[in-house]
Specification:
homodimer; globular; Rossmann fold; 15 helices
Amino acid sequence: MFHEPHLAPRAVTCQPLTPLSFLARAVDVYAERPAVAWRTDIWTYAEFNDLVARMAHWLRDQGVGPGDVVSVMATNRPELLAAHYAVPALGAVLNTVNTRLDTEEVRYILEHGGSSLLLVDPTVAVDPSGIQIPVHVLCSGADQSDGVNFFSGDAPALDLLAAVHDENQPIALNYTSGTTGRPKGVVYTHRGAQLNATSNLAMMHFTPETRYLWTLPMFHCNGWTHTWALTAAGGLHVCLDKVDPALIVQTIAERAVTHMCCAPVVLYMLLDHMKASALSRVRVGTGGATPTPALLAGLDELGFDLTHLYGLTESYGPATINDPGPHGPPDVAQRARLLARQGRRHCNTGKVAVVGVDGAVVPDDGETVGEIVLRGNTLMAGYYRDPEATEKAFAGGVFHTGDLAVMHPDGQIEIRDRAKDIIISGGENFSSLEVESVLHHHPDILLAAVVAAPHEKWGETGWAFVETRGGKPIDTEALDAFCRARLAGFKRPRRFIVGPLPKTATGKIQKFQLREQAKEMATHEQP
Amino acid sequence: MFHEPHLAPRAVTCQPLTPLSFLARAVDVYAERPAVAWRTDIWTYAEFNDLVARMAHWLRDQGVGPGDVVSVMATNRPELLAAHYAVPALGAVLNTVNTRLDTEEVRYILEHGGSSLLLVDPTVAVDPSGIQIPVHVLCSGADQSDGVNFFSGDAPALDLLAAVHDENQPIALNYTSGTTGRPKGVVYTHRGAQLNATSNLAMMHFTPETRYLWTLPMFHCNGWTHTWALTAAGGLHVCLDKVDPALIVQTIAERAVTHMCCAPVVLYMLLDHMKASALSRVRVGTGGATPTPALLAGLDELGFDLTHLYGLTESYGPATINDPGPHGPPDVAQRARLLARQGRRHCNTGKVAVVGVDGAVVPDDGETVGEIVLRGNTLMAGYYRDPEATEKAFAGGVFHTGDLAVMHPDGQIEIRDRAKDIIISGGENFSSLEVESVLHHHPDILLAAVVAAPHEKWGETGWAFVETRGGKPIDTEALDAFCRARLAGFKRPRRFIVGPLPKTATGKIQKFQLREQAKEMATHEQP
């Protein structure tokens, strides 16, 4: 009875959802409020919009138009943030590239993505001779280099929304880290980005008073879409040239930072470096590893409140959130145990389930391991130029994360291990996370990673790579005794390798590399 | 280049936007947290979901299905909140009815809307003999009446999302107050409701710690969509049987209320009633009249922080917001002057402009008066069974509010007057708001409303209806002198009528009625 033609969607009542609307609105609402801080400078939202306009017009002058891909390989400086608006404002697609990739990996991404041009910052070491498209170096007044400077000059008017005709059109192309096989190009849409940014805005409690420190690389899921979410709130983006503990601590104090996101490895670094507490409480979103009681207690004392998130590039970053709020248990070990869980579904995540191989949900007993699957408006459109991988990922009408977890009775998921991180020793399966968790309780260990090494008799055994606090030496025999006292025999590491751990640009430990190293060492040693 | 078939929207990545998803998620995420408080009881989100499920199944048993209209006429009790989920979960359309309407008005709405059945609470006085559809009385254990009780019994499983096939399908049918002509049926969609609820969640800063007092009637734009927004946040809905100052003050203290929304008239009542400050700061969203310096100073002292919003039924409630934040000027008069502005566009409002009769935007000089027009995803689909009024409202691709305002240089709109509230005396136009603002500065006046009365010589003159604090007598000659000292001669009220002012159910002064009264008195008095 309600199907009257005059009630159908029309242009005035149905506009494409896009996170570009957040900047358009910020210019209306927060024009004179601080938008971006970098080094010693601050730009208001009106000024940041000028930066965006200059970049967009320059890109248009380079021939960039609707459907083109623009690649940017930069640290968290204002131009990278601006590219999140300037590129899609042309109807083009933003491809942010991890700054730590080597030229060969970059070349593959640019070719696969069909990129039109590459913007790099002066610190990025890419051999331009290997790149077939124009490469331009970003340049601020302070940079000791020539290049294209978007910080000054005329700012012609720019209609941020003019090129957004369909909320399902692509806004970004983000390549996975590709630990197995070639990286895959994850396609984000305007609609998905708007909705995940809105989820973050609501669940991280961003407001105009938020001062957000950019410890999380913007090239990582577009900074979990905070690149857009914070603008929606009218908060301050505090840029950061590098993830350096001293610089972070200094910036937190100078800018009175209220929020930041980072991998736990950054938090370990901060814990090791900071002596005094932060001036105000800082809300930290973290993910990718389990916060230990020691980390939690230490951070608490320093003034950091942890929120644990879980997601993938394919889910625009966060898909689940564990925000303990002010009502957590007072006991720090108990809080750590609860905070180790990855949480429950995010504001606009349609469904989070843990399923068995038959696709049926596992019991919520905190014990039965299954695969995390997702549904909802904050999932990628698919993998660019890879229909096969796309259909495989969406098989059965859900997105398959490939991550293994249990479901707790309180509806929280807890990752037991990525499938590839399960170690099978003498027919017994165990999780490298469990062993790492034990090692993280050792007072001298800053970071630990346990991987499977091939073994003639047992098939596999676990080897532990450990990084000590301040790099000081550690007695591996005592460490073995420490593990024996806390783990079943087949779970204890058969070998300890001490030294700095290899990390990705986003601070995740590169277990892939450790696995290779262990394999090589084990093969070499065996008769 | 990006148009690959496998990247098109599919069921797993594109689900209809609907605020019902907020309750579905709350059951997953906040199951054991308090959802609804009423009188002495509290229900968790799991329990509230049971209430919703019972109501949905009962409605289905009554024959309600997709596209049907279900009317509810009730105060802010849990069943009215539950109806916001139970009715649309069947694919049906919720029609909330103002509890103060008389039987004839209710009959018109039920017939025009084609309602299937009417639920009323025991306090509602509607003559069932005038109603052609089944009328059922709501009944809790505590109510002294027979009726349908949704608070106990089996709660069969309910898939909240099963009947939402299209995000543009209708979710609610809200009749305008109809001060001129018949009320119009404003149609809300699932998409629009989800997006406006998300705006409110973000901009009112609702969190799981929010305890929201339901002073604003839920039948008013579905409580500005807070019926859904607060559930998205996992906050506590604090129900309220009636807008009584003593009950409000008591409930604020008992439930440690953090947020509420209401018309300024309720705030005047509170200011008059409260002696001590609220225990904690309460964030108050208000709209519909100008907060005076006296009101602002008084509320500030009592612990209330004001946010000024503006909107209409057609915009799902709030379309603009003026949130002064912690950085307002310290001087209370200056703050009041800034807070009197209606604000800038809300989070998901596409456009707010002030235009002249030619449709061109007026200068942002704070002086040139034009009509407020809106665009965006949080506008009604149209008027039910009224294509003509719909096309007129959307003429030229914008929504015409009919409200007159100026645009300030800082991008804030300020309502000068509804067109019908401008008084034209001896060829001079002036705003009744300006005169009311002067009267509100008088220490003995609680409320003032100025309307045009016909005048033989001047065409119109302004008459002032005033309600005094505690109903005490006031010297109208002294009041006249008070106005003469502060207003141009043609603006001063020619007559003062002292007594309680007639108010709508939402607390707005019924100027329409005062205008009628003034007209009748003036006609009667003239020779």
